[in-house]
Design a protein that fits this description.
HEAT repeat domain-containing protein; transmembrane helix; 20 helices; Leucine-rich Repeat Variant; mainly alpha
Length: about 425
C-alpha cells in the first residue's frame, strides 16, 4: 500500500509539472502574438530563452520522475510478492505444525490466508477460516456491510474477501447486499453468495432457501445474462434447483442462458424440464434444449418423435441441433439422416454425415450417398466426410505405431 501511494504521489507531481509546462507554452504563444500585432513592444528574445530553459528542465524532470515512478512500482510489486511468500510459509507452518505466527495478520497476511483458504480443503482450510474470524477480520467485514455509509469500493473489497472465505455466518449479510442500490455491489453479492452456497456443506433446507433467494433476485431483473450464467456455474450441483426454477418460470432470455449453462456442464439432469422446451414457440429455446440433449449424449426414447419432427424445423440452427440429437436415438434414424444430407444448410448436411458415420454401417451408407444420392451437395458432403475420416484414421494409425530405437553403432561393423 505504501508503494502504491508513492507511485500515486509521483503521478500527481508529474501531472502538475505537465500542466505548468503547458501554461508556459501558452504564455509564450501569447507573447509572440502580442509582438506580432504590436511591433513596437520590447524584444521577445529574453522570453524565448527563458521558455526554452524552463521547458528543457521540465522535460528532464518529467523523465526522471517517470523512471523513479517505474522503480517505485516495481519495488512495491516485489515487496508484495515477498510479503505474500513470507505469510504463506508462516500460515502453512501454523496450520500443519502449530508453529506460532510472527504477529497479527496485516493486509498482506489476510490476502494470503484467503488464497490458501480457497485452494486448500479439509481441516487445514477450516483452521484458516477460524483464524480469519479469531483475529477480527470477519467481524470487520460484516460491520462494513452493515453500515450504509461504507464507500462502494470498500464494500466491494469486503464482499470479495467473504467470497473467498466461504463463511456460513456471512451468508445473511451477502443476501442483504442483493438489494443494494449499486448494481456493481449486487453483482458481486450474487457471485459471492453463489460461490459460498456452491462450496459450503449446508443443510438441505438452508441450501434451498439460499438458492430461492438467488432466484428471487434474478427474477427481479437486476442482473445481466452473463452474471446469471456465472452464478449458475459457481453453484455447481446446488445450481440444479436454480436452473429448474429458471426453466419453469423465467423470461425466455434467462431460460436460453440456463440451457446454455446446462449444455456446457454436459449434465443429464432436468431432462423433464428440458424436454418440455422442445415444443416452445421460441426457436432459441428449442435449439437450446436440443443442445443440452446432445451435450449429455442422452436423448430419451419418448422424445424421438419430437426430435425427428424438429429435423424439419424452418429454422436452420434448430434443424442442426435436431440432426445432432437424432444421432443419439436408438435406433439411429439412418433414412432421415440420409435425407438430411441434402439439407439447404451446410452445417445440417455436415451433422447428418457425421451422424451416419458413427452407425455400424455408416461408411457404406456414405459411399452409397457419394454414388447415388439425388442431391449434388449431399454427394459432396458425403465425399468430404469420408476423406476426413480416412485422414483421421491414418493419423491415428501412425500415432499408434511403436517407436523403434535406433540401431546402436558399433565401431568396425558394416
Amino acid at each position: 500500500m505504501k508503494g502504491h501511494r508513492l507511485v500515486l504521489g509521483f503521478g500527481i507531481l508529474s501531472l502538475g509539472i505537465s500542466l505548468a509546462l503547458t501554461l508556459l507554452i501558452l504564455a509564450t504563444g501569447m507573447t509572440l502574438l502580442t509582438d506580432h500585432f504590436h511591433p513596437g513592444a520590447r524584444s521577445i528574445w529574453p522570453v524565448l530563452i527563458f521558455t526554452c530553459v524552463i521547458g528543457g528542465l521540465s522535460c528532464v524532470i518529467l523523465s526522471v520522475l517517470q523512471f523513479v515512478q517505474l522503480g517505485a512500482l516495481q519495488s512495491a510489486e516485489l515487496n508484495a510478492t515477498v510479503r505474500e511468500a513470507q505469510w504463506s510459509e508462516a500460515l502453512l507452518a501454523w496450520a500443519y505444525a502449530e508453529v506460532p505466527l510472527p504477529g497479527r495478520l496485516d493486509e498482506a497476511g489476510v490476502q494470503t490466508l484467503l488464497k490458501l483458504r480457497d485452494s486448500l480443503s479439509g481441516e487445514v482450510s477450516d483452521r484458516l477460516k477460524t483464524l480469519y474470524g479469531a483475529q477480527g477480520w470477519l467481524s470487520r467485514d460484516l460491520r462494513l456491510l452493515t453500515r450504509r455509509s461504507t464507500p462502494v469500493v470498500v464494500r466491494a473489497e469486503a464482499i470479495e474477501r467473504l467470497a473467498l472465505l466461504r463463511e456460513p455466518l456471512a451468508l445473511d449479510a451477502l443476501d442483504r447486499e442483493l438489494r443494494h442500490r449499486h448494481p456493481e455491489i449486487r453483482a458481486l453479492a450474487l457471485l459471492a453468495l453463489s460461490r459460498s452456497v456452491g462450496r459450503l456443506e449446508l443443510h438441505r433446507t438452508e441450501r434451498t432457501l439460499r438458492v430461492l433467494a438467488l432466484h428471487g433476485a434474478i427474477i427481479r431483473g437486476e442482473f445481466s445474462v452473463g452474471q446469471v450464467q456465472e452464478a449458475l456455474t459457481l453453484l455447481g450441483e446446488a445450481g440444479r434447483l436454480l436452473a429448474q426454477e429458471l426453466l419453469l418460470g423465467a423470461p425466455d432470455t434467462l431460460r436460453t442462458a440456463t440451457l446454455d449453462v446446462l449444455a456446457r456442464q454436459r449434465t443429464g439432469a432436468l431432462h423433464r424440464e428440458v424436454l418440455e422446451l422442445l415444443s416452445s414457440p421460441n426457436a432459441e429455446l428449442r435449439a437450446g434444449a436440443l443442445r443440452v440433449l446432445v451435450s449429455s449424449a442422452q436423448v430419451p426414447a419418448e422424445s424421438a418423435k419430437t426430435v425427428l419432427k424438429l429435423t424439419e424445423d424452418p429454422t436452420a440452427f434448430v434443424r442442426l441441433q435436431a440432426t445432432k440429437a437424432a444421432a443419439y436415438l436408438d435406433p439411429v434414424p439412418t433414412e432421415r439422416l440420409w435425407n438430411l444430407l441434402g439439407d439447404p444448410h451446410w452445417w445440417v448436411r455436415r451433422a447428418a454425415a457425421q451422424g451416419l458415420l458413427h452407425v455400424p454401417d455408416g461408411e457404406r451408407l456414405l459411399n452409397d450417398a457419394v454414388a447415388r444420392h439425388a442431391d449434388r451437395y449431399a454427394r459432396d458432403i458425403a465425399r468430404t466426410t469420408l476423406q476426413e475420416h480416412g485422414e483421421r484414421q491414418l493419423k491415428t494409425h501412425l500415432t499408434l505405431q511403436p517407436v523403434r530405437p535406433p540401431l546402436a553403432y558399433a565401431p568396425g561393423s558394416t
